[in-house]
Amino acid sequence: MTRTGPQIDFRSDTVTRPDAVMRRAMAEAEVDDNVIGTDPTIAELERRAAQVLGMPAALWTPSGTMANLIALSVHLQRGDRFLAMRGAHVLNNELGSAAWLAGGMPDILDHDAGPGRCTPETLAAATGTSGPYYSLRTTLLCLENTHNAAGGAVTPPDEHAQLLSVAKQAGLTVHLDGARIWHAAVALQVPPAALTVGVDSVSACFSKGLGAPVGSVVAGSVEFVERARRMRQMLGGGVRQGGVLAAACLVALGRVDELAESHEFAKRLAGGLAEHGWDVSAPDTNIVLAGVPDIPTALHWLGSLGILAVPMAGKVRFVTHRDLSSADIDEALRRIKTGA
Questions:
Q1: Whole-prediction pTM value?
Q2: To the nearest 10°, the Cα dihedral for 152, 158, 161, 167?
Q3: Which of 114, 286, 329, 332 lies deepest, with the highest CB count within 10 Å?
Q4: Quick check: 163 and 143 in contact, CB under 8 A?
Q5: Quick one: residue 225, left, alpha or beta (phi over 0 = left, psi -120 to 50 = alpha)?
Q6: pLDDT, tens digit, 9 for 90 and up, residues 295-312
Q7: Alpha-carbon span 119 to 52, nearest angstrom
Q8: Alpha-carbon span 82 to 257, nearest angstrom
């Protein structure tokens, strides 16, 4: 029997809805034609996002998937091999667009330095050596911080620097999928720019727990963004009065520090699940992965309690976010403990 009480939604931090402040900013946004390049609100978002990310320039995109695809399309030539961590979003959650549209040949790096991270030695071994003309040419490394499928795991600046050093010595371009870079920065108590040092491009999303209904940026050099703008248009991402959406992203950008609360909620949820016998580890950020004997059965049971979650990396994923309260965490744990 399905529970008739209020549902507690842990499916993702993308289920958040714009609040009154954000809706008002959207309604009052100054707009123009962004395809022509004259929308002032998008221009302001791009300026501020580039500054926060420590990059010379940035480009607004409708989605994080498009931001990543644009970056890979700019960096790769057809048939180039690129490296990414096992379970990376660009490998598992973007419908093969890295290969289909960007023309790249993906290869996987295992997590031998901790969740979502490989060792410099593993990366060095994977970069390959020169071979005959018909060998794969490895040109790009894709990093992800936080790593979604590894449970929102963070890569700290020192490990990031070690991987960047190996990549650059091997002549690789580096793209950082920073869909949740704001979460990583808050967890590590460092500026977001501390996590982008040395990369050639970075994507970042405003709908991951910050409340914006849509919108990401992809940032890099001025030349990169000029090429990225053309690719965005080719992919159908050129919007007209996009300032209505960028206004929400600007509000979201001012709320990054508030993510700390959802991280605390995730720690409480993980601790409570562990007390009730669930197989969980303490989360770095706002994603809790729980091992269960049978995922469909577990999700069905949770659903009967009015608790929504999703499968991820062979586990049940719970994601905390700004639309959940402290009382929601307590109530979810109560329902799980009592089965009612």
A1: 0.94
A2: -70
A3: 286
A4: yes
A5: alpha
A6: 999 999 999 999 999 999
A7: 28
A8: 33
In angstroms, the CA 239 to CA 68 distance is 18
Q: In this predicted model, what pLDDT tens digit does every residue of 147-187 receive, in sequence order?
A: 999 999 999 999 999 999 999 999 999 999 999 999 999 99
Structure token pair of residue 161: 């620097």
Lowest mean pLDDT among 28-32, 134-138, 277-281: 134-138
Structure tokens at 59: 């480009």
Q: What is the DSSP string of 14-40?
A: T-----HHHHHHHHT-----TTTT--H
Euclidean distance between CA atoms 94 and 91, whole angstroms: 7
Q: Burial level of 176, CB count in 10 A (0-12/13-18/19+)?
A: buried
| C-alpha torsion 216→221→225→226, nearest 10 | 170
Q: 3-state DSSP call for residue 106? A: strand
Q: Residue 171, exposed/middle/buried by CB under 10 A (0-12, 13-18, 19+)?
A: exposed
- Burial of 276-293, coded b for 16+ CB within 10 Å and e otherwise, reads eebebeebbbbbbbbebe
Residue 148: what residue type?
Answer: N
